[in-house]
Amino acid sequence: MSRPEINRRKFLLGAVSLGALAAAAPITNKAKAFEMFGFGKDKEPKAPHGKAESFPFELTDEEWRERLTPEQYKVLRSEGTERSCSSPLIDVEGPGKFYCAGCGHLLFSTGSKFYSDSGWPSFYEPHDEYSVGTSTDYKIGYARTEVHCANCGGHLGHIFPDGPPPTGLRYCINGVALEYVQDEKTE
Ligand SMILES: [Zn+2]
After folding, report:
1. In the chain, N or C: fewer CB atoms in 10 Å?
2. Which pTM was predicted?
3. 172 in catalytic set
4. How far is CA 17 from CA 101, 108, 169, in A?
C-alpha cells in the first residue's frame, strides 16, 4: 500500500521514535533482539522507544467509543487483552493483510503469520517499518514490550522473544484489534 509522501514525512518527523523504527526492522540476531526489546539483564530497553505523545490519526475518547465496539475499545484504547483462543483470526492463513481496527493502518500480513499455540494471532514481524511502534509496560510486575499501531497509537499486544526465524520474535496480537482483508486473487 503506498501512502502520500507527506504522510511519511510527517510520520518520520513527528510520530515515531528511533526505537520504534528499529523495532520494526527484521532482526536476525536473537541476542540483539533480546537486548533491543528489553529482555536483557537490567530489563530496560537499550534502544530509545516508547509511546509517542501524538499520532497522525487522533480522535477524542468520545469519538473512539462511538467508532469501536466495546471489546475493540477495551483492547485498543484501554490496553486490555481479549480472551485467549477467542479470535477467529488465529486460524487465518491467507494470503491477506491485517489492518488496524481503529484507523485502518496496515499492520501485518499473512506472510509473517505463524501458529503459536498461545491463543492469540501471532506474527514474527510487522508488515513494514511504518506499521507499529513499541513501548515498555510494567503492568503485570515485569517489563514487557508493548506494541501499538504507529498511526493511531491503539494497543495491539506484546512482543515476546520466543518466535520463529528469521526474527526470533513473536508479535502476540489481539485479534479484535485487527481487520483482516484477504488478498485479491491474481489470475
Ligand atoms: Zn490504528
Report:
1. C
2. 0.74
3. yes
4. 23, 20, 20
Strand 178-182's sheet: what is its strand order?
Answer: 106-109, 96-100, 178-182
Ligand 1 centroid – CA 183 distance (Å): 20
Q: Does domain 5-182 have CATH number 3.40.50.10320?
A: no
- What is the identity of the amino acid at 34? F
CA of 187 to the centre of ligand 1 (A): 32
Residue with cell 501458529: 115
CA of 93 to the centre of ligand 1 (A): 22
74, 134, 155, 171, 179 from 77: Cα distances, Å: 6, 15, 6, 18, 16
Q: Is the pLDDT of residue 22 over 50?
A: no
Domain residue ranges of the chain, discontinuous segments joined by +: 5-182
Q: Which phi and psi (to 5°) does residue 11 adopt? A: -60, -50
